[in-house]
Specification:
By secondary structure, the protein is mainly α. It is 73% helix and 0% strand. It has 5 helices and no strands. The radius of gyration is 16 Å and the shape is elongated.
């Protein structure tokens, strides 16, 4: 059976989290409990929500947690843009991490779309978490 850890979306979210941590090590120490913490928590939340949703009992629950993960992607994007505004990072620092964040958000959207289509086309009561674990987002 396929684990959430084998899903590309979770792997990319994990890599994004690491990039955010690496980037925020350069933030001012005065921001440790402010922007640094907020950005790290948002980046960590993406993968955590993907994993938690995969462990839930229904597709509807899984989709709910995927929406939470997507919201965290938007939070990461906004915090990164604010970090440029505050001169903690440069536009050059920002570009690759925004691309990675956009990729994670896109993957989450594709998974949500696929699961919603599956849920709407089949008997909702017959879809189990076992099916979610093997679902790879491709139709």
């Amino acid at each position: 059976m396929k684990s959430y850890k084998n899903m590309l979306v979770w792997q990319e979210a994990r890599a994004l989290k690491q990039d955010v941590y690496d980037l925020t090590y350069r933030f001012p120490k005065s921001e440790l409990y402010a922007m640094t913490s907020q950005l790290r928590r948002a980046a960590t939340s993406i993968g955590l929500n993907i994993a938690e949703g995969a462990g839930r009992g229904t597709v509807r629950d899984y989709i709910h947690f995927l929406y939470n993960a997507r919201g965290s992607c938007y939070e990461v994007e906004t915090a990164l843009l604010y970090s440029v505004d505050l001169h903690y990072i440069t536009e050059k620092d920002l570009a690759p991490i925004l691309r990675k964040n956009a990729k994670v958000s896109w993957l989450i959207n594709k998974l949500i779309d696929g699961l919603e289509q599956k849920m709407n086309s089949e008997d909702k009561m017959k879809i189990t978490c076992d099916e979610i674990e093997i679902y790879d987002g491709n139709g």
